[in-house]
Amino acid sequence: MVYLTLAAGIILLLIGGDVLVRGAVSLAVKLDIPTLVIGLTIVAFGTSAPELVISLRAALAGSSGIAIGNVVGSNIANIFLVLGIPALIAATNCDQPFIKRNMLYVVGASLLFITLCFNGPLSFWHGAILFGCMVAFLVESGRRAAQRSDAATVIGEEAIELIDGVSGVPSRNWAIVLFLVIGLVSLPIGAQMTVSAAADIATSFGISEATVGLTLIALGTSLPELSTTVAAALRGHCGLALGNVLGSNLFNILAIMGLTAMVVPVPVPDIIKNVDIWIMLAAALAITPFVLRRKCITWKFGLVFVSCYVLYISYVFTPRAAQIAAIAAN
Q: Which of 138, 199, 207, 249 lies 20 to 30 Å from 70, alpha-carbon distance?
């Protein structure tokens, strides 16, 4: 039953986040808000809504392992799995505009997050620093896009399609209100179900909440990115995959952890601080050579990425118990 609750919670989160974005985008269009602003704010934040409500709900419930594990685990899954699987279908290009700059932002954000974790617990001021960096990134992205008159290079073609109505944005006022209500109701309910089920699973199997957050929840909240990149690969638009992943990882660190820490202090579990955040950084660095040299991620490297994720999941669920016990003993 607890697994059904977890699955239902994640489904509610994904549906709620998707519906909320569509309703909010449609409302913004009716209010004559520029497409670039919609893409950099509503679409960007809305697509990260599931991860945000999960981390907030977990932190408020005292489950910091889930709150941080969700972000760290999602970032690891995004690179090794969300980039790896599409590369098995078709080579992923790494030569999009601004991709080097965004790659450096992700690596820099990862290093900043690691530094703050070792000066934790993450407090309001830690969160303000992270979220401030997110705002600075959005402002700079807007400035660059305005100079080039090319919003799609910054916020992604998928976001432009969503705004243009190709992907089912509601047009009638009653439909917009319905979408917003469904999204705003589904997200907190889904978060409550997911966090409660995750805590129960951790208790029943004698594993940490961080382990559940790093795996089951992180993988569940990464499903939209995975489906988007696989669909793009099948259509021959593999270049979208890398941009989506970098944007998602940047928002996870700066916006989600920033806002969560600003609401409630978030202690950093020792096992995440000593192991998982470094794996997250290693994953980011793994794609840096492809970006800097503008090389494609071919099926061979895609296979390596997917294998790395399988090994990581195996590591989390096997020797981790002994490591957690050793850290606790010290």
A: 138
Chain-centre distance for alpha carbon 190 = 17
pLDDT, tens digit, 9 for 90 and up, residues 174-197 = 887 888 788 778 877 877 788 788
Beta carbons of 287 and 99 less than 8 angstroms apart: no
Two tokens at 218?
A: 């992180």
Q: Is 266 helix (H, G, I), strand (E, B) or coil?
A: strand
Question: Hey, how many other C-beta atoms are within 10 angstroms of the C-beta on 165?
Answer: 14
| DSSP helix/strand/coil, 92 | strand
Q: Which residue has the tokens 């600003």?
A: 262
Nearest to 210 by CA among 322, 310, 73: 73
The reply to whether omega before 267 is within 30° of 0 (cis) is no
Say if domain 2-329 classifies as CATH 2.40.50.90. no
CA distance 271 to 280: 13
Q: Quickly count helices (H) and strands (E) in the chain.
A: 20, 0
Whether the pTM exceeds 0.70: the reply is: yes
Tens-place pLDDT, residues 38-61: 555 666 666 677 788 888 888 888
pLDDT of residue 122: 93
